[in-house]
């Protein structure tokens, strides 16, 4: 197992735990909604601005095997709906 877990600066209160990936790699897992709330509070910005900043800068920043991961909480129905929408685009 990789010992050097990377963290995302400023989002300690959004940590959910550690996930294990294929190959034995681990990564710190964050709650995306909580990260957005933190950005709103610390940056004094509205939700739309915080979401734009977060999704552009944070989950897309790959820094190696232990890059933090960000969870978007969804129900099975929401996942199915998202898959249906993706299939329509293809």
Q: Ends: how far apart?
A: 37 Å
Main sheet? 3 strands, mixed
Radius of gyration: 15 Å
Please give the oligomerization state of what you see: single chain
Q: Strand order, biggest sheet?
A: 1-2-3
Give the structural class. alpha+beta
Shape: globular
- Helical amount: 40-55%
Strand content: 15-25%
How much is the average pLDDT? Answer: 89
Low-confidence stretches: none
The SSE order reads EEHHEH
Q: Could you give the count of β-strands? A: 3
Features:
alpha+beta; 41% helix; 90 residues; 3 strands; single chain
Secondary-structure blueprint:
Layout: E1 15-20, E2 26-31, H1 32-43, H2 47-57, E3 69-71, H3 76-89
Parallel strand pairs: 2-3
Antiparallel strand pairs: 1-2
Helix pairs in contact: 1-2
Give an account of the 3D structure.
With 90 residues, this protein is an alpha+beta fold. The chain has one domain (12-89). 41% of the residues lie in helices and 17% in strands. The chain has 3 helices and 3 strands, in the order ββααβα. It has helices spanning 32-43, 47-57, 76-89, and strands at residues 15-20, 26-31, 69-71. A 3-stranded mixed sheet has the order 1-2-3. α1 (32-43) packs across α2. The radius of gyration is 15 Å and the shape is globular.
């Amino acid at each position: 197992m990789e010992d050097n877990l990377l963290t995302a600066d400023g989002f300690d209160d959004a940590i959910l735990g550690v996930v294990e990936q294929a190959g034995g790699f681990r990564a710190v897992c964050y709650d995306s909604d909580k990260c957005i709330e933190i950005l709103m509070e610390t940056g004094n910005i509205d939700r739309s601005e915080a979401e734009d900043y977060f999704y552009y800068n944070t989950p897309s920043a790959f820094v190696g095997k232990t890059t933090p991961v960000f969870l978007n909480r969804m129900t099975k129905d929401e996942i199915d709906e998202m898959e249906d929408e993706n299939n329509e685009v293809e």
